[in-house]
């Protein structure tokens, strides 16, 4: 490994970073993380902080989960790779498909299609949705519906159903036939509605209206996050997802829940679908499936999909990835799933999530720069920062940077995305770790 001077000299100069401009990375060099343990990360200068981002929503079990590391090492020694394309499989992938079917049985999902990550899982879901309708004799069902503010990865299909211009504009024109309805976002919505239940009804009515306008027989699927994550942690009223599920079922439209973030305990329930009491036709998962230790994902499929694909000799799936069902990823996922359930992480996610949410609400009472605090469902919390509460004008990038840097200096790394400060720490976060996060945020806001 090169020394720290070498790393600093070449930081962001030969590598382009996701979700930022190359010039910004050069002007504001990213933190160089060189070590991690538990829920802490350490930078090249030896500064150790609580990881309030959980890697990127994915390191649910922290950085010291030995069973997952051991499973990866053992599998590398046994079978480091083999394809699951037609004619071959591997024991780890077969076992994982069984365990995932057991895990997601309450969500009505019992088949798995393996991918390399979240964007792949979304892309797979969209493609299988179109194929499903073609196999049923409705080839005209090609369109997709989604929520504004929703995030569904970075492939062309995922970007097309994304509801945020930041991930779309530079790459347009995108896939045609994708339409967005208002999100149940009480702080900012076109209805100027602040009551969550009323807003849920208005958004559901907008969905009905869009279906009527497009024609139900032209729509393949609705894709949505049970709780919008990257868009700023936007939890809907509990009535919203059931209304969406009913509308989709009534109109013959498949429902895809994008649970790349919300599956495996993040919300304080084992899935976002289970949190709201619905059963989707497909569920896109990734991230925490291997605790971030190996790139891997899985699309879980329900009975509608099973009935059509498994009873039709023409249902050849002309889609897949070189690393679909990768044996090392599957072994990591098996160990991760077992440890996730052994620790029963949903209980701690709920308790620590409440602690963070309540702590952030207390900071809102203290600092006018905090316009809104969202969360209350597991370890998903966001603070929306404004320069004026009355007008809800977002803060500028410099102010956000001061808050971020000050919080880092005071013991926590957090994620700032536009005006939103997002907290998504590991589900094994302790009460003291959560207190450290809140104290670091307090120092960040005080610096303004």
What does this structure look like?
- The chain is α/β, with parallel strands linked by helices.
- The protein has two domains: 31-64 and 344-446, Aspartate Aminotransferase, domain 1, CATH 3.90.1150; 67-343, Type I PLP-dependent aspartate aminotransferase-like (Major domain) (Aspartate Aminotransferase, domain 2), CATH 3.40.640.
- The protein has 15 helices and 16 strands.
- A hairpin with a 4-residue loop joins strand 2 (40-43) and strand 3.
- The mean pLDDT is 97.
Quick recap of the structure?
The protein has 448 residues and is α/β, with parallel strands linked by helices.
> What is the general shape?
globular
Oligomerization: single chain
Lateral strand order in the biggest sheet: 4-10-9-8-7-5-6
Low-confidence stretches: none
Strand content: 15-25%
CATH architectural label of the largest domain: 3-Layer(aba) Sandwich
Class based on secondary structure composition and strand pairing: alpha/beta
Alpha-carbon Rg, integer = 22 Å
Helix content range = 25-40%
Number of helices: 15
Number of strands: 16
Q: Report mean pLDDT, rounded to a whole number.
A: 97
Question: Quick one: biggest sheet?
Answer: 7 strands, mixed
């Amino acid at each position: 490994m090169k020394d720290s001077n070498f790393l600093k000299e070449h930081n962001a100069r030969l590598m382009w970073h996701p979700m930022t401009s190359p010039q910004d990375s050069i002007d504001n060099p990213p933190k160089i993380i060189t070590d991690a343990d538990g829920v802490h990360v350490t930078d090249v200068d030896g500064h150790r902080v609580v990881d309030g981002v959980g890697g990127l929503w994915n390191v649910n079990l922290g950085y010291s989960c030995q069973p997952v590391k051991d499973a990866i090492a053992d599998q590398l020694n046994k079978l480091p790779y083999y394809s699951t394309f037609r004619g071959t499989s591997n024991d780890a992938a077969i076992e994982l498909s069984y365990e995932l079917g057991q895990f997601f049985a309450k969500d009505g999902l019992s088949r798995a299609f393996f991918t390399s990550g979240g964007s792949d899982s979304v892309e797979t879901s969209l493609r299988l949705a179109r194929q499903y309708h073609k196999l049923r004799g409705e080839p005209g069902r090609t369109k997709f519906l989604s929520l504004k503010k929703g995030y569904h990865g970075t492939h062309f299909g995922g970007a097309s159903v994304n509801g945020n211009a930041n991930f779309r504009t530079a790459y347009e024109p995108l896939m045609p036939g994708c339409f967005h309805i208002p999100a149940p976002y009480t702080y900012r919505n076109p209805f100027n509605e602040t009551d969550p239940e009323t807003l849920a009804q208005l958004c559901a009515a907008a969905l009905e209206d869009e279906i009527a306008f497009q024609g139900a027989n032209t729509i393949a699927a609705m894709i949505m996050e049970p709780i919008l994550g990257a868009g700023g942690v936007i939890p809907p009223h509990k009535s919203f997802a059931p209304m969406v599920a009913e509308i989709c079922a009534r109109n013959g439209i498949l429902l895809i829940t994008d649970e790349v973030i919300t599956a495996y305990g993040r919300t304080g329930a084992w899935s976002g679908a289970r949190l709201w009491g619905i059963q989707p036709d497909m569920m896109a998962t990734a991230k925490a499936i291997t605790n971030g230790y190996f790139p891997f994902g899985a699309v879980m499929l329900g009975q509608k999909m099973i009935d059509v694909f498994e009873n039709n000799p023409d249902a050849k799936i002309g889609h897949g990835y070189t690393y679909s069902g990768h044996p090392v990823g599957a072994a990591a996922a098996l160990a991760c799933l077992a440890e996730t359930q052994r620790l029963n992480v949903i209980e701690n996610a709920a308790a620590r999530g409440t602690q963070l949410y309540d702590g952030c609400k207390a900071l809102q009472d203290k600092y006018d720069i905090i316009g809104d605090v969202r969360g209350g469902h597991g370890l998903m919390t966001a603070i929306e920062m404004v320069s004026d509460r009355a007008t809800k004008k977002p803060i500028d990038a410099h102010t956000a940077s001061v808050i971020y840097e000050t919080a880092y200096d005071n013991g926590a790394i957090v994620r700032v995305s536009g005006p939103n400060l997002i907290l998504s720490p590991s589900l094994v976060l302790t009460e003291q770790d959560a207190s450290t996060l809140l104290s670091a945020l307090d120092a960040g806001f005080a610096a303004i």
